Structure formats: C-alpha cells, structure tokens
Amino acid sequence: MDILFLNGPNLNMLGTREPEQYGTQTLSDIVAHIEALATEVGLSIEHHQDNSEAGLIDKVHAASKNGTKYMIINPAAFTHTSVALRDAILATGIAFTEVHLSNVYKREEFRKQSYFSDIAEGVILGFGAQGYEFALNAAIKYIKER
Question: Is the pLDDT of residue 145 over 80?
Fold first, then answer.
C-alpha cells in the first residue's frame, strides 16, 4: 500500500454532524473521491476510520510492516489528547500530513493544541473536504520525489 488515510472519532458522522463546521459531504463520499484521485496517478490507498484510539494505533503499527509510504491523518478529537497515537506514528517513521476540516484557530482554545503538528510534514486546516485533496497532492509529491 502506498498511502494510509486515517480518520479519527466522530468523522463517521460527517454529513449530519454540525454541517456548519464540517460540511454536508459524508465520509464515504470523501473517501471515494480521494481513492479515485489516488488511483488516477497509480497509487494505492487504504482508508480506516475509527472511534477508538487503539484501532487507529493498530492501523499505524500495521502500516510500518506493509510498505506504507505516506499517511494522511485527521486525528479529530485525538489531536488534542493522544500521546499514544503520536508515539505510534513516531515509531513508524512514516511521513504524514495532518488534516482538519475546520479551522481550529477559529474555534475553542483547547482545539489549538495538537500533538501531531510538530512532527507532520504539513498541516492543512479550514478547507473542508478539499483539505484531503491538498494532503493527497502533498503525498503524491512526497512519494514521487523518493
């Protein structure tokens, strides 16, 4: 697999959850679009959404064994709380882009703290589902340059 595409808790509720913050597209719609774009350039992508921190960590661990070249990660609420997920990512050494649908700097103070931004290749936030496309383009560039 070339790219692991991870989404954290509550993102399975996209489309109905706070559409003013997160838009009206479902996660399934977003994933189908990103998978199609990756396929167009000859890259394989695996998506996993989990409401469990352990499930996300298990996927990151598996990525270190299956040849994953890059990760696109929206840790969602785990952004502000998960040292364990951060440590799992660091243990793999796999480059990644952190994505957030909303602009966290326009929201509550606690959302401005990320346990991932300082170890990410880049951070994309505030562009809704289009942010995943930006992250995919960054992943494609990263993979092709190596």
Answer: yes
22 given a catalytic annotation: yes
pLDDT at 4 over 80: yes
The answer to whether 79 and 53 have CB atoms below 8 angstroms apart is no
CA triplet 124, 126, 94: central angle to 5 degrees?
Answer: 20
Is the model's pTM score more than 0.70? yes
Q: Please tell me which residue in 47, 100, 115, 132 is annotated as part of the active site.
A: 100
- Is 64 annotated for ligand binding? no
- The contacts of residue 40 (CB under 8 Å, 6+ apart) are none
**146 labelled binding-site residue:** no
The answer to whether the annotation marks 17 as part of a ligand binding site is no
